[in-house]
Design goal:
By secondary structure, the chain is of the alpha/beta class. The protein contains 14 helices and twelve strands. Helix content is 46%, strand content 17%. The strands form two sheets. It has a seven-stranded mixed β-sheet with strand order 9-8-7-6-10-11-12. Strands 1-2-4-3-5 form a five-stranded mixed β-sheet. Helix 6 crosses helix 7 (222-233). The protein is globular. The protein binds glutamic acid.
Length: 419
């Protein structure tokens, strides 16, 4: 299957076409934006612990470089497809453009269930994947980072593999590295923190603040954990969280620190003792809460369930959790859906700070890095919110975010003579 037939890719193109129609962008230009500049598919033969070779496949999609080197994560997931990787690379172009950072958009993926691999097999897979894409990445060319089921250890292997090819310590070729290898601790919390910051800013508009507001978080990985942690620290009441095995609910509120501990020690939120009820991931989305944070996977809020969603503020920690049809239904209901390209940009913004820091010889402190992130997230939320109120009020907030993002990319392409 080519990427053009993939439903996630088609959703990304649909979002682009809708905003292009509003901005009166000609069809030929939309066609340029709808496809990646380069797409590489690689074979990754891994010698498994049982002595046999197993072949995996991976991709790197480089969508647009008008604003700078390609930037975006690499995910390891059994459902990764070429179309999903291309769609995610397009979303990175808009995310980086909207964030106002000097990057284009890229994304990578390997079709694998990393939980089935031993640490040694995982290291071999990671090194071989990076080796296979090494000719098209680089500190000023394409800068990968973690995504679903990849982490600072994966980045350390990527960085080491690349450094051994080029013959020097190429710190800047990946971001979200471990602290000892030029990373920032702040990068670990940054995506979830950013998702929490924009939820808090939206809560200020709706209720005057986030204190006492109820929150449900779908997905308790790196994004969901820190979104829940910060929102509860700021006085919100987190009543439900979930992971891929199920959800827990307590209308009186969960002890977030405790749930994080249980999740980290046992791998399942349902092992937490303070839940009133076990529910499904689908039920969690429809709970009577003020704020919903979908922080798991794509297409969980659809035209089938959008009508039953009660949250007034939805902060998209995941990429693509709301379909375009659901976005319109939620707009009609008066909900604010803070779009992924704004709500989960904290990760890549911190990646930019780390990358710049590496190139300056590690200049910034952790504290300064966090201050910059806070400042940028608040500023970006304000810009998109104002644009939405001024130009696109009848549309989902996503339309305003897309308009700002696409316009910046188009301007750069025009100046460079590409269109
Ligand atoms: N994978 C993250 C995202 O989807 C982070 C990308 C990065 O830091 O480059 O935004």
């Amino acid at each position: 299957m080519t990427y053009e037939n993939d439903p996630v890719y088609q959703m990304a193109v649909k979002q682009l076409r809708e905003v292009a129609a509003l901005l009166q962008i000609p069809d030929d230009v939309v066609e340029v934006l709808a496809h990646p500049e380069r797409l590489l598919r690689v074979k990754i033969p891994v010698r498994m612990d049982n002595g046999k070779i197993k072949v995996f496949f991976g991709w790197r999609s480089q969508h647009n470089s008008a604003l700078g080197p390609y930037k975006g994560g690499v995910r390891y997931h059994i459902n990764v497809s070429e179309g999903e990787v291309v769609a995610l690379s397009m979303w990175m172009t808009w995310k980086n453009s909207l964030a106002g950072i000097p990057y284009g958009g890229g994304k990578g993926g390997v079709k694998v269930n990393p939980k089935e691999l031993s640490p040694r097999e995982l290291e071999e897979l990671s090194r071989k994947y990076f080796h296979a894409i090494s000719r098209i990445v680089g500190e000023d060319v394409d800068i990968p980072a973690p995504d679903v089921y990849t982490n600072p250890q994966t980045m350390a292997w990527f960085m080491d593999e690349y450094s051994s090819i080029v013959g020097y310590n190429a710190w800047g070729v990946v971001t979200a590295k471990p602290k000892e290898l030029g990373g920032l601790y702040a990068r670990i919390v940054s995506t979830g923190l950013g998702t929490a910051i924009v939820a808090r800013e939206a809560a200020k508009k709706v209720w005057g603040g986030v204190e006492g507001r109820t929150v449900a978080v779908q997905g308790f990985g790196n994004v969901g954990i820190y979104a829940a942690k910060y929102l509860s620290e700021w006085g919100a009441k987190v009543v439900a969280v979930s992971d891929s095995k199920g959800a827990i609910y307590n209308p009186e509120g969960l002890n977030v620190e405790e749930v994080i501990k249980v999740k980290q020690e046992t791998g399942r939120v349902q092992n937490y003792k303070g839940a009133k009820k076990f529910i499904t991931n689908e039920e969690l989305l429809e709970l009577p809460v003020d704020i919903l944070v979908p922080a798991a996977i794509e297409e969980v809020i659809t035209k089938e369930n959008a009508d039953r969603i009660k949250a007034k503020v939805i902060s998209e920690g995941a990429n693509g959790p709301t379909t375009p049809e659901a976005d319109i239904i939620l707009r009609k209901k008066g909900a604010i859906v803070i779009p992924d390209i704004l709500a989960n940009a904290g990760g890549v913004i911190m990646s930019w700070i780390e990358w710049a820091n590496n190139r300056m010889g590690n200049w910034l402190t952790e504290e300064q890095a966090l201050e910059r992130l806070e400042h940028k997230m608040v500023e970006n939320f304000g810009r998109v919110y104002d644009e939405w109120q001024k130009r696109f009020y009848d549309h989902p907030m996503r339309t305003a975010a897309y308009a700002l993002a696409v316009e910046r990319v188009l301007k750069a392409m025009q100046l460079r003579g590409w269109i």
